[in-house]
Design goal:
The complex is a heterodimer of chains A (about 500) and B (about 700). Chain A is an alpha+beta fold and about 500 residues long. Chain A is built from 16 helices and 12 strands. In chain A, α11 packs antiparallel against α15 and α13 packs across α15. In chain B, about 50% of the residues lie in helices and about 15% in strands. Chain B is globular, with a radius of gyration of 29 Å. The chains are: A alpha+beta (about 500), B alpha/beta (about 700).
Chain lengths: ~500, ~700
């Protein structure tokens, strides 16, 4: 049963203490305020979320200091009318609400005679400062990245998107963690049904805790069976803003530096922000490289097996004889060789992620030496397989999004097995199966292969921003995710007055 | 989007691939057998007939429901059998060209798995796949066929003749290929909003027209490359054709795997469409998910039975030829159906596929790659020898001339010899990289063996069509030369011809040319003759083969090097020549040969006009040097000597040995249709009536 505050400090204090019994990290402080120290007050907060209240550096500190200097008879009026002008103060009527408010990292102040609890923000929970992204590096453009504080992340977006139409809706996920989620979008550009769908999916489950945006992603994606992610994540505020301007919804999750973008498609995973900061020629070239890389990241080892074990006629004679000679003395069949090397590489990659700092860099050199050089000299693997595996890895590194690259890493083994079993037919079979899967896949009701499928008329303009990127002045239309009435995003000199 | 509807563009692309799949694999050899050089016309007429059918069908659909729903069952079975035939075609293609060691049952099961997966995703999913693949596959097709253009001979396309009922049979075949467009009957409810029946019909016709244009272009290329007789005798000629294409730069040696990919995707469209709509029809009788399983079983059984009967010419294909006109009438009597439910067939097919596996991978180091295939004739039949490079020599940095390895077998026939060689060798023999076919004169003189050899070559791609053919008196003498050569013999001979100006167009006579000339009779095949000079193989003459129909009567003539060069010039293989005279050499460039035919009393006059340039040089006359100088007398001398060279050699061989170096009979069909009609099946009469005259016209160029 909820406890309603009465203004009787003793009873109100007891209610708050009872709520947080056996919580050693919750600190309680009784104080006197007023010029003559005639009014009692009670401060309750989470340890480390408060700076020293004696120092006049925070709103709480200033507030308490001012109350301490104020005549007692003025204090109730000030509290009621918010005469201190504290914008972030929230008032709670019940102890349970005040408890939830305290858990957001702010302090709760109870004043004798005042029947409401005040939540006053202070230092807040400890967190990382804003820093550069470790991944999603770009050659040109800001490298500023999100951190774990959802408020800060929202502010980073707001900094870039100074529009009244930029909306931020809050909700909480996780029954026990009460993780704050911000749903951001551009009102007027986004399709209302998309926002509705996002909110519905986020509300469609109940779970103990959502500790990271990745959990929210998995609980709201279209199908878990697909290796391809249907929601994109980014650590970059500029990327998030770019997607919001295109009519997508971006979800920020507290304690998670990754923003979730929905819907997502194959093309969006290949794009990077510096595609738009660089000139179209180089941007198009880089994008083409990434598309080709995404194909080879999945198919090259399988193609190698198909061609060398089955359809040898494809290769030039000299090359084929060279491959055959290089395999002399290797004890394993080619498919075992390829799988062993691929698994070794995956081990290296995993070890490099887990090991701290300098050791993570060293593992690459050590692994390359051991696997590359020694294994070849010991005739455990042939040099060509090392080249194939290394090139495949390079291709997967070219894919900007790590989750998306992960799909190719998994599918690579599928293609390897089929190609080893059925040669070029197996390779074709695997490619067609994957393409069919992609054709059937959707993200929030949008086909995954947009803009290559399913659009017509001026929707085909979106192809100007796909495999190649046309000049910015020709990318007149927003993506198809935007409202039909808000298609146009660019107007040249001749169209300026049309809006 | 994602509402189960497709756009007009998606429909057109899907329909295009439906037509292309069937047309690419099953059609060219059948069309050649019926319509021959008039095949494109037959295709257009067949397409026009189907367009009429489509218009009639659209009007019938507009008039609403009629007729018995049980007809759906019959129509559904027909669609499934047609789809089963497509499954057989694809499975057979995969088995013959990509996976000869795997079981046919496994291959078609795997194809079915993919078909079911695509079907379960709905028409929208399938349409998207083909929407994405459209341009890449078209680009690949165009690329491959453009590369193959130089290998076509325009003479094979003429004359265009209509052979009565056979021509109309060709039109009917074309109509049947286009009849995949009958799926338009099912499409109205799947089309997005705004697509009226009239737009649907127009879109279907556009797709069909594009399909017909592609098939027509491909047919003309195949006809030009093979000739009518070789084309009708070839199985899946599009695969054989692409296996002979040379990609510039030499990065890819054989391209049949690439065209197999195109055929795979295109036939999948055809099979998928038939399966989807066949299942839909069956479910009109009884709405049960087990109907999908029934459909899978029908498809599998049809393909399997056709495969079992394929040695005898097949049953299903012939049956479909007869029953299709009746089946095509059924949509006029059917109400429009509803969408199907998901099937359970996927899991069952997956289980079946996984349990029918068999893995026999041949590792690279367990293969041997012969470079030279030698065939010689003897009393017992033939002797087959392979020469291949020892892999340890490839990896060994110090490649001293240690010769290459050899394998040989004797056998009564070529096929038996190839089989015995496979058994004898400890390693798997991979013939994909054969560069040279060396025939001993004794082999050439045995028509039955030659016939068997060309039939084997025309029946598949086991023997590469792009290997160069040489003839020699003594194979062992040529093979012995390998002992003193660093490079393997096959590569050496290949390079020898690549730089040879007498084979500027083709870089040598390829096995495929031998096959096509064998099947398309009454032409000249010129094969270089190898001899030995300074311990190296050299071309020191030519063999001219003039084959009659089916090789039962053919003639081999050994001709001199000079005569061979003239024959190459007349065939367009070369356009330069050095004439050795007592005073030196006369160099001819840009030599062109044109033919004029006329009738005079009882004779056919064939005037050969040979023109070109005589190049001069600054140097003075010296033994072995070029005839010099800008003196008019010398110019006249050169022209005179060049003229007498051609006159003398050509007339000499014709009058004394009845050898027509100019191949005038073969060129007749491109120049004079009336005369061709008179002599086309009567080469001896042509020889009796022919009078050859040669005029030369050379310009002196500094």
């Amino acid at each position: 049963m909820e406890y309603q505050f009465t203004g009787n400090l003793q009873r109100d204090e007891a209610a708050m203490v009872a709520l947080f019994q056996n919580c050693a990290d919750i600190k309680k402080k009784e104080m006197k305020i007023g010029k003559n120290k005639g009014i009692s007050c009670f401060l309750i907060y989470i340890e480390v979320t408060l700076s020293s209240v004696m120092l006049r550096t925070t709103a709480l500190g200033n507030f308490l200091a001012r109350l301490s200097e104020m005549p007692e008879e003025d204090i109730p009026k000030v509290l009621v009318q918010n005469g201190m002008g504290l914008s972030d103060v929230m008032l709670y009527e019940t102890a349970e609400e005040a408890g939830e408010g305290l858990l957001t990292g702010d302090a709760i102040l109870l004043v004798d005679g005042f029947p409401l609890a005040m939540k006053i923000p202070d230092k807040g929970y400890p967190g990382e400062p804003i820093k550069d992204t470790d991944t999603e590096k770009v050659l040109r453009g800001s490298n500023e990245g999100f951190n774990e504080n959802v408020k800060l992340n929202t502010a980073l977006m707001r900094k870039r998107l100074r529009s009244l139409d930029f909306k931020v809706e809050e909700m909480f996920l996780g029954k026990r963690t009460q993780t704050l989620i911000n749903i951001t979008y551009m009102d007027g550009i986004v399709k209302p049904e998309l926002v509705k769908k996002v909110k519905e999916r986020l509300s469609d489950f109940q779970i103990d805790g959502v500790l990271d945006g990745g959990m929210a992603e998995q609980l709201t994606e279209d199908t878990w069976l697909s290796p391809f992610p249907q929601i994109q994540s980014t650590l970059r505020p500029d990327r998030a803003v770019m997607e919001v301007l295109d009519g997508k919804v971006v979800v920020l999750c507290n304690n998670s530096p990754a923003a979730l973008i929905m819907p997502a498609d194959y093309n969006s995973f290949i794009q990077t922000t510096d595609d738009y900061y660089q000139r179209p020629w180089i941007a198009s070239f880089a994008r083409l490289i990434r598309y080709v890389a995404s194909f080879f990241a999945m198919s090259l080892p399988g193609l190698y097996l198909a061609v060398t074990n089955f359809q040898t006629g494809i290769l030039p004679t000299t090359l084929l004889l060279s491959f055959a000679a290089a395999r002399q003395g290797v004890p394993f069949p080619a498919v075992v060789e390829v799988i062993l090397m691929e698994l070794s590489f995956e081990l290296l990659r995993e070890a490099g992620v887990r090991l701290p700092g300098a050791m993570g860099n060293t593992i690459g050199i050590v692994g390359g030496l051991i696997i590359g050089q020694a294994a070849v000299e010991a005739n455990l693997v042939s040099p060509i397989v090392v080249i194939v595996v290394a090139f495949t890895a390079l291709c997967s590194f070219c894919i900007p999004n790590d989750e998306f690259a992960g799909a190719f890493r998994l599918l690579k083994f599928f293609v390897i097995i089929l190609s080893a079993w059925l040669g070029f037919f197996g390779f074709l079979w695997a490619m067609l199966a994957i393409l069919t899967h992609l054709a059937l896949l959707k993200s929030y009701d949008h086909p995954y292969l947009i803009p290559f499928v399913g659009i017509k008329g001026d929707g085909q303009e979106r192809r100007k921003d796909s495999v190649v990127r046309f000049p910015l002045w020709s990318l007149i239309y927003r993506s198809i995710h935007a409202k039909d009435t808000q298609k146009r995003r660019f107007r040249g000199k001749e169209n300026l007055e049309d809006e | 989007m994602n509402n189960g509807k497709i756009s007009l563009r998606q429909m057109k692309r899907l329909l295009f691939f439906d037509v292309l799949g069937l047309g690419l694999v099953a059609f060219p050899d059948l069309l050649a057998a019926s319509a021959g050089t008039a095949g494109v016309l037959a295709l257009l007429i067949g397409g026009a007939l189907f367009a009429g059918y489509l218009i009639a069908l659209t009007f019938a659909m507009r008039n609403g429901k009629r007729g018995s729903r049980w007809l759906f069952g019959a129509y559904g079975i027909y669609l499934l059998l047609a789809s089963g035939y497509g499954l057989f075609l694809l499975g057979d293609l995969i088995k013959r060209f990509l996976l000869p060691d795997k079981s046919f049952g496994l291959i078609i099961l795997l194809i079915l798995l993919l078909v079911i997966y695509g079907k379960n995703g709905g028409l929208e999913g399938r349409a998207r796949v083909y929407e994405v693949l459209f341009w890449p596959l078209i680009a690949l097709l165009v690329f491959l066929f453009v590369l193959g253009l130089p290998g076509t001979e325009p003479q094979n396309l003429w004359p265009i003749s209509f052979s009565g009922m056979r021509f109309w049979r060709g039109c009917y075949l074309a109509f049947l290929v286009c009849s995949v467009g009958q799926i338009a009957f099912f499409l109205p409810e799947y089309m997005e909003e705004g697509v009226t029946p009239a737009r649907l019909r127009r879109g279907a016709m556009q797709a069909l027209l594009l399909g017909i244009l592609f098939l027509g272009a491909i047919y003309e290329l195949l006809l030009g490359s093979f000739g009518t007789d070789a084309l009708m005798g070839a199985r899946t000629p599009v695969m054989i054709y692409t296996s002979n294409i040379v990609v510039p730069g030499g990065f890819l040696r054989r391209q049949e795997a690439l065209i197999a990919g195109v055929c795979f995707v295109a036939l999948m469209a055809f099979i998928g469409s038939g399966f989807s709509y066949g299942t839909l029809c069956l479910k009109e009788i009884k709405r049960s998910k087990w109907m999908s399983l029934v459909a899978v079983v029908v498809l599998y059984a049809a393909a399997w039975m056709e495969y079992q009967n394929s040695a005898g010419g097949g049953v299903l294909g012939k049956w479909l030829l007869w029953i299709s006109p009746v089946a095509l009438c059924i949509p006029f009597l059917l109400p429009l159906g509803k969408k199907p439910q998901r099937s359970v067939a996927l899991v069952l097919t997956l289980v079946l596929a996984l349990t029918t596996t068999g893995c026999s991978v041949k590792e690279l180091e367990n293969r041997s790659f012969p470079m030279v295939l030698s065939l010689s004739g003897n009393d017992a039949g033939c002797e087959l020898r392979y020469q291949y490079m020892d892999l340890s020599r490839v990896s060994d940095k110090e490649k001293a001339g240690k010769g290459s390895n050899q394998l040989s077998v004797e056998s009564p026939s070529v096929s038996a010899a190839l089989y015995e060689m496979d058994m004898k060798s400890g390693k798997v023999i991979d013939l994909n990289h054969l560069k040279v076919l060396l025939l001993e004169e004794s082999f050439l003189e045995q028509p039955a063996l030659m016939q068997e050899l060309v039939e084997k070559g025309n029946g598949g791609i086991e023997l590469p069509g792009n290997m160069l053919v040489f003839v020699t008196k003594d194979i062992k003498a040529i093979e012995k030369l390998q002992e003193s050569m660093d490079e393997d013999l096959g590569s050496y001979l290949e390079e020898l011809m690549e730089g040879n100006p007498n084979y500027k167009k083709s870089g040598g006579t390829a096995f495929k040319n031998l096959i096509c000339d064998w099947y398309n009779p009454n032409g000249n095949t010129i094969l270089p003759r190898l001899g030995v000079k300074d311990q190296m193989p050299v071309v020191n003459g030519y063999f001219l083969i003039q084959s009659q129909r089916l090789g039962s009567d053919y003639r081999i003539s050994k001709i001199s090097e000079e005569d061979g060069l003239i024959a190459n010039l007349c065939d367009g293989e070369a356009n330069a020549l050095d004439i050795v005279v007592d005073e030196g050499r006369i160099h001819l460039e840009n030599v062109k040969v044109s033919y004029e035919y006329s009738r005079s009393n009882a004779y056919i006059l064939c005037n050969l006009n040979i023109s070109g340039d005589i190049l001069s040089s600054e140097s003075t006359v010296a033994e072995g040097g070029f005839v010099t100088d800008k003196d008019a007398t010398d110019e006249a001398f050169c022209r005179r000597r060049a003229g007498s060279f051609f006159q003398g050699n050509i007339q000499n061989l014709w009058s004394e040995h009845n050898i027509d170096l100019t191949n005038s009979y073969y060129h007749l069909k491109c120049h004079d249709r009336d005369l061709w009609e008179q002599y086309k099946d009567d080469y001896p009469a042509y020889c009796d009536d022919l009078q050859l005259t040669i005029t030369t016209n050379f310009d002196f160029v500094e």
